[in-house]
Design a protein that fits this description.
The chain is α+β, with helices and mostly antiparallel strands. Helix content is 25%, strand content 26%. The relative contact order is 0.17.
Length: 279
């Protein structure tokens, strides 16, 4: 898509709500009718100076908040905004603000979007050379706030990135029969998509930049107060691509069996132990 008129001012990181809505409106129909599930991609989404400042902050990263190195998510780390430089923190707060929510609501048709002040799973994502993230559907329930996950926003930070460097973001058909879309994670490209239990996506092709530069992105998730007791929560669901060496993830199947067999209190305690053990 052509870049939206919407842009955060590089100094104040603010924009009027109605300006944000007006910027999203021309793209709403395409977003909602996109296949294999609602999504959009915007190039040159923010003034480049904003992301240049973020990259400066990333030159001095602390130890990662979380780290994954298993068959389904290899050499992947993440950093919550509170542990980044002040400028980057301000950007994350702006992307959780009312004007940006207005942009997303107008684009997606999802009203009552709620940002995540805890940035659970969000922040800066980094995948090193040799790493990847297999095709998956995201966790669907924010337990701390009891909210339903509805929307992902990804903004890429990789200058001069080429498809052959791996790490392209893929969308797959709901039946996992074929890849439907692919986006090279180019600098200042924003991809936004609606999340469900079968919105299959990921970057399964190994990152292999010739200079060993990692793949980096901004990730934010948004929710609605539509969760109820009839729903069943799940963690990330991984699916192997047909005809590949992707490994099936048995941990979620184990969790589902335990959830059916154990009383809720015992299940929660068991799940906590499994997480601490990395299971």
């Amino acid at each position: 898509m052509t870049p939206p008129v919407y842009a955060l001012d590089p100094e104040s990181l603010l924009v009027k709500t109605e300006v944000a809505r007006d910027a999203a409106r021309p793209h709403a129909e395409a977003y909602r009718n996109a296949e294999p599930f609602p999504h959009a991609a915007f190039d040159n989404f923010l003034p480049p100076v904003i992301l240049d400042r973020v990259l400066q902050d990333l030159n001095d990263l602390p130890s990662p908040e979380t780290s994954f190195d298993r068959a389904q998510e290899r050499l992947k780390t993440s950093y919550v905004p509170e542990r980044l430089g002040q400028y980057s923190k301000n950007l994350f707060y702006a992307l959780n603000s009312r004007p940006f929510l207005a942009f997303l609501e107008e684009l997606t048709g999802i009203n009552g979007l709620i940002p995540d002040p805890y940035f659970m799973g969000g922040g800066i994502h980094r995948i090193e050379t040799g790493g990847h993230l297999d095709i998956h559907a995201d966790f669907n329930h924010h337990g701390k706030m009891n909210l339903e996950r509805r929307l992902n926003v990804l903004i890429y930070l990789n200058r001069d990135w080429k498809a052959e460097y791996g790490g392209s973001f893929e969308l797959w058909e709901k039946g996992m029969t074929r890849k439907a879309k692919s986006f090279v994670p180019e600098f200042n490209r924003m991809v936004c998509f609606s999340t469900t239990s079968d919105s299959w996506h990921g970057n399964p092709e190994t990152v292999n930049h010739p200079d060993g530069i990692p793949r980096q992105s901004i990730a934010l998730y948004y929710y609605t107060a539509t969760w109820d007791e009839t729903r069943k929560g799940h963690s990330t669901l991984f699916r192997p691509r047909p005809g590949t060496a992707d490994k099936a993830d048995r941990s979620e199947a184990t969790r589902r069996v335990l959830q059916e067999m154990l009383p809720p209190y015992v299940y929660r305690k068991t799940l906590g132990v499994m997480r601490r053990l990395g299971l």
